[in-house]
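Subject: for your reference before the review

Hello V.,

The reviewers asked for a structural picture of the protein, and I figured it would be easier to keep everything in one thread rather than splitting it across files. Below is the amino acid sequence we used in the manuscript, unchanged from the supplementary table.
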Amino acid sequence: MSTNPKKRSSRARPGHRPGESVRVLISNARVKQRLRQLGEEIRRDFPTEPLHLIGVLKGSVFFLADLARELGGEVSFDFLSVSSYGSGTDSTGEVKLIKDLDVSIEGRTVIVVEDILDTGLTLKYLLRFFEEKKPKHLRVVVLLDKVERRIADVHADYTGFPIPNEFVVGYGLDYDERYRNLPDVCVLQFGSRAKSKSGYRA
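And here is what came back from the structure prediction:
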């Protein structure tokens, strides 16, 4: 059995298909550190309020779960699902509601939890959707903010990390439903020269 480290490192990593590779953009340790700070920021604004977190499926699940543990106090969850993507990396530009909320948010302090803010089209749709349901407060927290791709005039109240215009996976984010389970936020790369995919999320 060979113990040559070069031979070991040249093997395809589990879960990676031929022609795909990833490089770490934000380590899990940095994510967890920033989540602690985000929890403190949110609780400074709402020190005693019960917080109702609404995760946007599926990418926000890890982020929401870890953030909730940093918030303390009374916290409740709900989820909804919207679609603006086909099977690849390019957005259709049209946002559709796939799963509605399970409970009313009227009179509640609502924190919308999104994995990534890109063009802003999805968030613009969601803000209009939530505001019609008359919450007491409505705030948005995003893990990643791809500012240069913005089309809609929207912003997050709390942001984890600004990132460059590269296609990211891991920590809940996917490519064709794969790579969500990577612990780090990574750039997905394609081809023999491992070129980054530049497709965008809404």
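For the response letter, the relevant points are probably these. The beta strands are 20-26, 51-57, 75-85, 91-99, 109-117, 137-145, 158-162, 168-169, 185-190, 195-196. The longest strand covers residues 75-85.

Happy to draft the paragraph if you're swamped.

O.
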